[in-house]
TrEMBL record:
Keywords annotated in UniProt: Bacterial flagellum, Cell membrane, Cell projection, Chemotaxis, Cilium, Flagellar rotation, Flagellum, Membrane
Annotated SUPFAM superfamilies: CheC-like, Surface presentation of antigens (SPOA)
A GO biological-process term: bacterial-type flagellum-dependent swarming motility
Any Pfam family: FliM
Record-level GO cellular component terms: bacterial-type flagellum basal body; plasma membrane
Protein name from the UniProt record: Flagellar motor switch protein FliM
Stretches assigned to the Flagellar motor switch protein FliN-like C-terminal domain: 256-323
Record's bilayer topology term: Peripheral membrane protein
Length: 333
């Protein structure tokens, strides 16, 4: 059982009450001896820890950002999607909480078993469809009589959005979301038993001037195989660098050694005006900033790396490396 930690102010107040007689130490001892009973609803079993719920929240916060980017580009209008809440409750309770007529997308997430439900408020769904068809993004609630064309447009829109869901889960498990069913009446939908615990992720969604909720219902049977991966310990362990195979280091070093780089020996620099540049003619002399008693600079891919001195090898111009590059201030020290 979790212990309650008191703050310093609460400890001081408690000691003050005991010293003044406002509280009796014997009464406190008797209260501790009394058996504490806490009610538990077996129909609302909590099968996920707070730690696991926080992990699911992080995953879907990433999904909401990806979904915002996707819909913004696809619909060409203002889109904002944020995680409003992540709760666990019985499946029956979730079905009762959504409208009697709404947009329901049921998709599988192999290799995980079971299916996930993505419920979209009609205000949001119709605003999306209106934008796809070239409208302003206004919402019309007529879910009960969707035409075949409207059904195809909506299902295609959410099917493409599932690629973002795959990416959001990539750090935990590789899934392949596939849209299997498109429904408008939740009463015709029975994914799991009514008392099955599900995680419901609610996304607060704004499309243009229309707003509503997108709810993602994930049954416990889907998450059961990967529950250990939802702990903070797994996340921290995964972030730790793994020991690389020595053979990989050798192969990497061999590849890097074969890479070509651009090297330039900088003879000197000078600044002149455009007028002076246009007036240049044969035998004119441009004064450089480089002093003859100072070493030249060798650049590797435009990065100053070495101090060098010029010379020749077998009638070819060459430079000899003297030392690693240091700035002007360092050389003067």
């Amino acid at each position: 059982m979790a212990e309650e930690v008191l703050s310093q102010n609460e400890i001081d107040s408690l000691l003050s009450a005991l010293s003044t007689g406002e509280m009796d130490a014997e009464e406190l001892k008797n209260e501790e001896k009394e058996r504490k009973v806490r009610s538990y609803d077996f129909k609302r079993a909590l099968r996920f820890s707070k730690d696991q719920i926080r992990s699911l929240s992080r995953i879907h916060e990433n999904f909401s950002r990806l979904l915002t980017t996707y819909f913004s580009a696809h619909l060409r209008t203002y889109v904002n999607i944020e995680v409003a809440s992540v709760d666990q409750l019985p499946y029956e309770e979730f079905i009762r909480s959504i409208p009697t007529m709404t947009i329901l997308n049921i998709f599988s997430v192999s290799p995980l078993e079971g299916r996930i439900l993505l419920e979209t408020n009609p205000n949001v769904a119709y605003a999306m469809m209106d934008r796809v068809l070239g409208g302003r993004g206004s919402s019309v609630s007529k879910v009960d009589n969707l035409t075949e064309i409207e059904t195809t447009i909506m299902s295609h829109l959410f099917e493409k959005a599932l690629d973002n869901y795959q990416e959001a889960w990539g750090s935990i498990v590789e899934i392949d979301p596939i849209l299997e069913e498109f429904e408008v009446n939740p009463q015709f939908l029975q994914m799991v038993s009514p008392n099955e615990t599900v995680v419901v992720v609610s996304l607060n969604t704004t499309i243009g001037e229309s707003s509503g909720m997108i709810n993602i219902c994930i049954p416990h049977v889907v998450l059961e195989p990967i529950i250990p991966k939802l702990s903070v310990h797994y996340w921290m362990q995964k972030q730790q660098p793994k020991d690389r195979d020595p053979g990989e280091y050798e192969a990497l070093a061999k590849t890097i050694k074969g890479a070509e780089v651009d090297m330039k020996a900088l003879l000197g620099e000078s600044n002149i005006s455009i007028q002076q540049f246009l007036g240049l003619k044969e035998n004119d002399v441009i004064r450089l900033s480089q002093q003859i008693d100072r070493p030249m600079t060798l650049k590797v891919d435009n990065t100053q790396k070495f101090h060098v001195q010029p010379g020749t090898i077998k009638n070819h111009l060459a430079v000899q490396v003297l030392e690693d590059y240091r700035g002007e201030a360092e050389r003067n020290e």
